[in-house]
Amino acid sequence: MSVRLGARGFILRAACVIVGAAVLAAGCADNTEDESPKVPKVPVTKVESIAAQLPPKIAQAGRLVVGVNVPYQPNEYRDPHTGEIIGFDVDLMDAVAAVLGVRADYQEADFEKIIPAIEAGTVDVGMSSFTDNLAREKTVDFVDYFSAGIQWAQRKGRPIDPNNACGKKVAVQRTTTEDIDEIPAKSKACTDAGKPEIHKMSYDEQSAAATALVLGQVDAMSADSPVTAYAIKRNPDTIEAAGPVFEAEPYGWPVPKGSPLAPVLRAALQHLIDTGVYLTIAQNWGVEAGAITTSVINGAKG
């Protein structure tokens, strides 16, 4: 999962442009084109009792500075028409900001630079499908807002076993859990058993990994479950799930260690959960399978 170290993604924009007509001939679908879902915003009002708990600096500025890395559909990516950053994560963070009476100010950064920026105080919170794990909890706190696992995808009609992919080519996004932990561990199990290694194909963007699978350049793709589900939804004639979701862990919003912002964000999120707004947002984006009922701080499983 996104340890988007964290996983993340999404789907076919850059690679489709690069390979042009050849991609069109292969039936390449561009997730950023007109078929991109038109998801309505859910109205949210300020809750004074929660907003009053905001750190004074943020309250006075009237904005929550959010570090984000795109594209990673359906969680965070750019609308191809407006250039605006949209997605499930965005709608949820916008709703949290509304509860707090501020606006979310999204600042793009390389994924691996977001947590250092939080530690340096240049952004208030990260929002890029971060997996909350014990290693990261040593440097930042997490407000957990979603449950995601790892999900593999395969070419339709060409089954692959995620637990026995020795000798196969598997696409992942660089610096994700799948890239750093999952595939290397599975590849080592292969070689320890005297079988060929897994050929890990790492891409800078999840979109390129998904495109490689759609075009048949790899045998499978491993990504966070909402990301893989969305890829399959956009390319139903070409790819399908390979095995079940596994190793489910929480997504969390990282904030500075010991920051008073963590309990405020958790309270705002829990308000959205309790009032049904959270579930509506999740359903709007088709990711309700990972919806939670209680938000916690630092809920890493291990």
Automatic annotation (TrEMBL):
Subcellular location: Cell envelope
Residue stretches spanning the membrane: none
Organism domain of life: Bacteria
Pfam families, per database record: SBP_bac_3
Cell division recorded as keyword: no
Keywords: Signal
Gene3D superfamilies reported for this sequence: Periplasmic binding protein-like II
Main location: other
Domain annotation Solute-binding protein family 3/N-terminal: ranges: 63-289
Signal sequence region: 1-25
Similarity comment text for this entry: Belongs to the bacterial solute-binding protein 3 family.
Protein name per Swiss-Prot or TrEMBL: ABC transporter substrate-binding protein
Organism: Nocardia africana
